[in-house]
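--- STAGE predict ---
source: upstream dedup step, 1 unique chain passed
mode: sequence only
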Amino acid sequence: MAKYAKWLGGTFGWALGGPIGALLGFAVGSLYDNASGDAMKWGDPQVGTGQKRTRTTAGDFEASLLILTAAVMKADNSIKKSELEFVKRFLKGQFGEAKAQQQLLLLREILKKPIEIRQVSMQIRSFMDHSSRLQLLQYLFQLANADDEMHGNEISMLTRIASYMGISKPDFMSIKAMFLVQNDESVYQILEVPKSATDDQVKKAYRKMAVKYHPDKVSHLGPEHQNAAKEKFQKLTEAYERIKKERGIK
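--- STAGE serialize ---
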């Protein structure tokens, strides 16, 4: 239990309380029979939530990621091998072998438990900053697209999660477009402007989106998440460059 207590208790804030904390408590308790003897009261609404909208810690973000990952994996009523392999590669690439193994064990237990999507997402909405929520949604789209195909049930689940997390439809469609084959429509969706937008409107939209998706916005989550944010920023830049080339914008 010590290694989990160090990772979970040592890096978590608001995620130790509420429905997220309850799911984590179930997962840890399933791995260690003596978990119920710990001083930490998992899922207690008062734990980790003393100050509303305190800055999200890396642990809060990663707990949210694991739980919503489980929700997306179960969306089409089957756990695909491609999704599981993607999660393994992703976690190892982001956090290293040792930490990834801990997270995969927790994910295995979380997958056994029903997940109240609305409650979990609303907790995230209440405490997680907007930039981190956008980053979280990007990860979930990557997962859904792990087999290079997003199924209807997965899109429906992502739509629900995004709505409950307070992510606007334009932001949702922008991130979704990043995982589609780029065409005349998707590049404009990424910039959140219609194809009929003027050159000046396109430039203004890019500047606005560049601020919104700048990797520094998630620097508080640690370098691993900041590096992932750079991929999203690169997709934004590529979409803008394609539009510039097609329109002859200087």
